[in-house]
Specification:
The structure holds 2 protein chains of 2 kinds. By secondary structure, chain A is mainly alpha-helical. Chain A has 19 helices and no strands. The chains are: A mainly alpha, B mainly alpha. Chains A and B meet through helix 8, helix 9, helix 10 and helix 15 of A and helix 8, helix 10, helix 11, helix 12 and helix 15 of B. Chain A: This is HD domain-containing protein.
Chain lengths: 593, 442
């Protein structure tokens, strides 16, 4: 069906079947009635008899019906053929627009009496794979739509010319064709909506507006196919014969067939981004989950800023790929344990430029280049690689910088544990103006209040008990500010009420925050004065073995984070705490990654 | 392929391509004559000419297919206008046909010749063109955009001559009156025109592709299956429809084709994305110092040449080249870049790296076949497909040369001695021939 994926029928199978049965019965009744009418109006009065009423009248051009039915069945089987070429995607939208056979059905509706036109799709739909009930349902759905289209065409032609069908000249004949095609698309859409209503589900078209949009979306395409079918109709009646009409239908059918599969492009782009992230993961296991979360956080900010559609998608890509330049940094430096020498830090700080160089050749990533190149710029001009300041930094890059820092602070690393969300936001606020764009930080904070945040999976336990994050880790990949800044956290001062077990899953004061992480009930959390940064002992694993064999993420808080990727947290990364303030950990103060 | 046919690298700036020049010259003369004649005589049925001219120009803008080389709407439009003379004589004659088609095709092709877009249209969805061309040393020439109008004008002229000479008025013996037979005749002419178009395309592309004419012709007919003939046949149907219902047939017939063109472009963009990702990953291995600078591209270009020497088809050559570009991606997982003077990795490690790289390529959507080749590049010879053997041999050779060995046959001999039976002798022989042909220059 149009909007029902194959597996979506699980729960309400009975209701769906009932609806289909109704469809089939309705179509049969209509067919009978219509046959009777055809017979009455036709030359042969025998059509009105009881037996004759089951057939589409004696004057029916059976050869034409058979020809079009075979053509429609061929289109259906063509649609099921796998497309040659690399990205093999399961065909999801098989009937996205009624299938490749839509022009054939419309031509049938224009050429044949309604009852006969309703027979055209039956053979093809019944030949489809699937359980018999589903095939019957398809046949009934298409039959009903074609029958309606034929009726609309007949009456519209009568309205336009006052003559019999087929008698209208061009361009007058185009209006009935368009009307009939739109009726065809509308009936298909209404049947789908009805199917969902019968099944008690409204997933793809929630609400009236969604339903209206789902109804209207395929209509232009159906109208265009109606034009093709009208051409075929004209050729059918021309001296060149029905053969040319059938041939003229083929290009339109091929067009529909190709369109039914063009969603591969999106899949290819997803695959490309995935491959780049996976390649970074070869070098540095932490980055993968981090990249995806930065993409999510960027989208949160972007939505608050009023971005929609493609621009939002581009922002997600930019966030996901912001660290792709790490591919160019020697793996040794990415995984290095000790502090980096100035020389090494300089090498690491090349990664935005490497990222830009890598993305340059990939067409659809062209717009992410600015974000990748400038995501380490600071508002005060102290960042790298270009030292841009203020509004000279591209807006996308300012978004990514905030998202990057936020995720770096709220995810647990091998050398320190995550900070709670409110604290991270406070830290971001503190650095507004100097490092981050206040607009982006405000947007992030608003979005978090509205949607909550699912932080990275709790990683390994902190190496140092009680170790807390210094302010430098706010920088995601930002070089540290002056070392020795006192940590901006007072352990007991934080509201540690019964917020979700992952202490950073919701904001204080945001009472109605939907927490996406289904954590254990609040009762399982020490209610007051819980020091969430105290190291939970059940996760003593200091470091994952390596990026190639990501260690299982030991849940530091005992909170499983379903649905979140679990990258091997191998090696330190971007948000290194400053060595000066935390001598016990002291890894690589602000290596600028 | 015989060694006498030089590769694309050698062809540039070498002797002139006589058949292509002759074709272009003929088209220029015919086009100029037709334009002068038409202007002198006055345009017959200017409305029809204008409508079809607009269709052809729009069709030239809406190109699709590999490298945006196909313009099905323009092909259909020009054939239809040429065939109009065969259906009730609503056409404008041979000269006017050639003139209208040439002018409108030129107008449609002009935007793609604008500065900055010479290499290919629409940078955001630019297909494999630039990357592949850069690798294979086949630059897209700016003058290439003239070849399409040349082809359009010549094929349209051919079709017009066919229907005008066999027109019922001119030759009543062929058939009598309108009817299915006439439709069949037009379809036949259209298919013949399609063959002529393929021939012209092969002649004009021969030099750029660096392949013999016969192979190009065969490929033109094989891939993609029947796209050219289908477009010209659609032109015949469009002519019939125009004769039946007038100029309204143009939008009614062509609008349903737009979704298909759109889908084809999107499909090409998807393929290009996979390839660009592979190239970008190859660049990453260079940036990271996993491989010497230029190594992936050198291996890719040499592997392609060896594959051509071994007689692989164009599709297989693309496969070899893509796999060669990405063959070292797995090395990104090495903590320390090991190349050049570093001791060679143990076989197990090489295999592990190859598997990792193959997994990334598989994920990138560049194609499962490419991924399989990348995965198998370090396997034993009998487990390897031919592309993997080619890449293995060329990779080993390039590593030796990069390590300081002189480029040329003596290094190849050393390779042959040291590698034992890890390398396919057939491939190494082909590599030797390629190197001999190229001289000692790398």
């Amino acid at each position: 069906m149009r909007v029902v994926p194959r597996g979506a029928l699980g729960h309400h199978r009975r209701a769906v079947r009932g609806f289909r049965l109704c469809c089939v019965l309705g179509v049969l009744c209509l067919l009978c009635l219509l046959c009777a009418f055809c017979g009455l109006r036709g030359t042969d009065a025998a059509g009105a008899t009881a037996v004759g009423s089951l057939f589409p009248g004696a004057a029916t051009p059976w050869a034409a019906v058979a020809l079009l039915a075979v053509l429609h069945a061929l289109c259906g089987s063509l649609t099921r053929q796998p497309l040659p070429g690399p990205p093999a995607e399961p065909a999801g939208g098989l009937h996205a627009i009624g299938g490749a056979g839509t022009p054939v059905l419309l031509a049938g509706a224009f050429l044949l009496p309604p009852a006969a036109a309703a027979l055209v799709p039956v053979a093809g739909a019944l030949a489809d794979p699937g359980p018999p009930a589903r095939r019957l349902g398809r046949a009934a759905r298409l039959s009903l739509a074609t029958w309606t289209a034929a009726h609309v065409h007949a009456s519209a032609t009568g309205l336009v010319t006052g003559a019999a069908p087929g008698g209208a000249g061009w361009p007058q004949a185009l209006a009935p064709a368009l009307a009939a095609a739109l009726a065809h698309g509308l009936v298909l859409g209404l049947l789908d909506v009805g199917l969902f209503a019968a099944a008690g589900r409204t997933p793809p078209c929630a609400g009236w507006r969604g339903a209206a949009r789902a109804l209207a979306a395929p209509l232009p395409l159906t109208g265009v196919y109606g034009l093709g079918a009208a051409t075929a109709e004209a050729l059918w009646h021309s001296p060149y014969g029905p053969g040319t009409a059938v041939l003229a239908l083929l290009p339109a059918c091929a067009s529909g067939w190709a369109l039914a599969r063009h969603h591969r492009e999106r899949a290819a782009q997803r695959a490309a981004v995935g491959a780049l992230v996976q390649a970074v993961g070869l070098k540095d296991g932490y980055t993968r989950g981090h990249s995806e979360r930065v993409g999510d956080a960027s989208v949160l900010i972007g939505r608050e800023l009023g971005l929609t559609g493609d621009r939002l998608e581009a922002l997600r890509r930019a966030g996901t790929l912001h660290d792709v330049g790490k591919l160019g940094v020697p793996t040794r430096l990415l995984r290095k344990d000790g502090p980096l020498t100035p020389e090494e830090r300089r090498v690491v700080e090349l990664h935005p430029e490497y990222g830009d160089a890598m993305v340059r050749g990939i067409g659809f990533l062209e717009e992410t280049r600015a974000a990748i190149l400038h995501h380490h710029e600071r508002l005060d001009g102290g960042g790298y690689p270009s030292g841009l300041s203020g509004d000279k930094i591209p807006e996308v890059a300012r978004v990514i910088a905030v998202a990057d820092a936020f995720d770096a602070m709220t995810s647990t690393r091998s050398y320190r544990r995550a900070r709670p969300v409110p604290e991270a936001v406070a830290e971001l606020r503190r650095c507004c103006g100097s490092q981050f764009d206040p607009r982006m930080v405000r947007a992030l904070s608003r979005a978090l209040e509205r949607h909550g945040w699912r932080p990275g999976p709790p990683g390994e336990a902190p190496v140092v008990p009680g170790g807390h994050a210094g302010d430098q880790e706010r920088g995601g990949n930002v070089p540290p500010a002056a070392p020795g800044t006192p940590p901006a956290r007072v352990p007991s001062a934080r509201p540690t009420g019964p917020h979700a077990a992952a202490p950073h899953a919701s904001l204080p004061g945001a009472t109605s925050v939907p927490t996406p992480t289904p954590g254990p009930p609040p009762a399982s959390v020490p209610a007051t004065g819980a020091e969430p940064q105290a190291p939970e002992p059940q996760a003593p694993e200091p470091r994952a073995p390596g990026p190639d064999a990501p260690g299982p993420d030991a849940p530091a808080h005992g909170v499983p984070s379903p649905g979140t990727p679990s990258p091997g947290r191998a090696g330190p990364d971007d948000a290194a705490p400053p060595g000066a303030g935390h001598p016990a950990r002291g890894p690589r103060g602000g290596d600028g990654r | 392929m015989s060694p006498a046919v030089p590769g694309p690298g050698e062809l540039r700036g070498a002797r002139r391509d006589v058949p292509a020049t002759a074709v272009r010259g003929a088209a220029a003369v015919a086009g100029a004559t037709a334009c002068v004649w038409t202007l002198g005589q006055g345009v017959v049925r200017p409305g029809t000419a204008l409508a079809f001219g607009l269709l052809i120009a729009a069709g030239e803008l809406l190109r699709c297919g590999p490298g945006r080389r196909r313009a099905p709407l323009a092909a259909a439009g020009s054939t239809a206008y040429a065939l109009l003379g065969g259906v009730g004589g609503v056409g404008g004659g041979v000269a006017q046909t050639v003139a209208v088609v040439l002018v409108s095709a030129l107008a449609g092709a002009a935007p793609s010749a604008a500065p900055g877009r010479a290499a290919g249209p629409a940078p955001s969805t630019r297909p494999a063109g630039p990357a592949r061309s850069a690798v294979a040393g086949v630059p897209e020439r700016t003058g290439m955009f003239l070849d399409r109008p040349v082809r359009r004008a010549l094929t349209a002229g051919f079709a017009a001559v066919c229907v005008e000479t066999l027109h019922p008025g001119a030759n009543p013996a062929v058939w009598s009156g309108r009817g299915p037979v006439q439709a069949l005749f037009l379809l036949g002419v259209a298919l013949l025109t399609a063959q002529g178009d393929a021939l012209l395309r092969a002649v004009l592309d021969r030099r750029r592709a660096g392949r013999p004419l016969g192979a190009l012709l065969r490929e033109g007919w094989r891939t993609p299956p029947g796209a050219g003939p289908a477009a010209h046949a659609a032109g015949a149907l469009l002519a019939l429809a125009t004769a039946t219902v007038g100029l309204w047939a143009l939008p009614a017939f062509c609008l349903p084709l737009l979704p298909g063109v759109y889908a084809a472009r999107r499909f090409e963009a998807a393929r290009a994305t996979g390839r660009q990702t592979a190239v970008s990953l190859a660049r990453a291995t260079e940036l990271a110092g996993c491989v010497p600078a230029g190594h992936p591209h050198r291996v890719a270009s040499l592997s392609r040449a060896v594959g051509r020497e071994l007689g692989l088809s164009a599709r297989e050559l693309d496969l070899v080249e893509d796999a060669a570009l990405t063959h070292d991606i797995g090395r990104l997982s090495l903590p320390d870049p090991a190349h050049g003077g570093g001791e060679p990795l143990p076989a197990e490690e090489r295999r592990r790296i190859a598997r990792l790289g193959g997994a990334v390529v598989r994920q990138s959507g560049a194609g499962a076949e490419i991924a399989a080749v990348v995965e198998r590049q370090a396997d034993r010879r009998r487990d390897q497909p031919l592309p993997a053997r080619i890449i293995r041999a060329v990779d080993a050779y390039d590593e030796l040369v990069d390590g300081g060995a002189p480029a040329g046959p003596e290094t190849l001999d050393r390779l042959r001695r040291s590698a034992g039976d890890a390398l396919e002798p057939r491939v190494v022989d082909a590599l030797a021939r390629v190197l001999a042909l190229r001289g000692t220059a790398p």
